Amino acid sequence: MTNLVEIFSSIQGEGIYTGARQVFVRFSGCNLKCAYCDTPYEPNPRFRVEFPAGTREFVNYSNPAGPDETAEIIKKFNLKKHHSISLTGGEPLLHTKFILQLSRLLKAEGTMFYLETNGTLPSHLAILIPVIDIVSMDIKLPSTSELSGLWDTHSEFLQTCSSKEVFVKTVVSSSTTEPEIIEACKIIKGVNPKIPLIIQPVSSHSGYPGKSPSIRRVIKLQELALDYLTDVRVIPQTHKYLGQL
Ligand code: SF4
Which residues pair with 168 in a beta bridge? Predict the structure, then answer.
């Protein structure tokens, strides 16, 4: 049993799978507190399910949710028309045991599991990695997230998921510094320089008090990252523009 926030079918709005259709399972709780966080993840007595997709019609269910109940809800969506199930949050790695149970219940469906994670819980990831197909991992830059001391943890985390498909996402603002980007690139290069890095300019929709970087600045940061890595893309959050959940 675990606490969920919501389950819905929508269009991925971040990273290299932007545009792909996914079923999202949003878990409650997070071990970090990023300055730019715009995600609802506080524990609630209920979680909501949008059905049909895109209608903003919700059915409420009681927390904590059981794995059987969650699997049955997910199966109501046509999984054949979905790229994967996105485990998101909050921080889904705080729910490792539940996700393992869920993966067993949904194995017969043949759907991929896509993990969206803040990249700071490597020991939790080590338990879950056998059932994960794709990892979307954040590297938190101190200037933007207002968190520090995460470099070594991010490095250990990326090494732990290097046997699976993985890409790294990092949020940048007008205050992002070049040494931070270089540090992030060195971590990725140390594992595999072909791992994609997605530079995600902070969203002006998020309420974050910092400023979005200018396009000149973003291009400069991308050029800098390309000194270390082979695949560096700039992709803003598209679900904000589309009005997606
Ligand atoms: S890791 Fe994600 S969910 Fe957690 S505080 Fe940061 S942005 Fe919010």
Answer: 137, 197
The span from the CA of 153 to the CA of 150, in Å, is 5
CA distance 44 to 5: 7
Which amino acid is located at 242 in the chain? L
How confident is the model over 30-62, as pLDDT tens digits? 999 998 888 877 889 999 999 999 999 999 999
- CATH class for the region spanning 4-242: alpha beta
Angstrom distance (rounded) from CA 138 to CA 79: 26
Q: Among 6-15, 126-135, 182-191, 209-218, whose mean pLDDT is lowest?
A: 209-218
Q: Given the CA of residue 89, which atom of ligand 1 is nearest to it?
A: 3
Distance CA 113, CA 129 (A): 10
Amino acid at 134: I
Q: How far is the CA of 178 from the centre of ligand 1 (A)?
A: 23
Q: Say whether 54 sits in a helix, a strand or coil.
A: coil
pTM above 0.90, yes or no: yes
Q: Report the nearest atom of ligand 1 relative to the CA of 145.
A: 6
Q: Per residue in 122-140, pLDDT tens?
A: 999 999 999 999 999 999 9
Structure tokens at 104: 């067993």
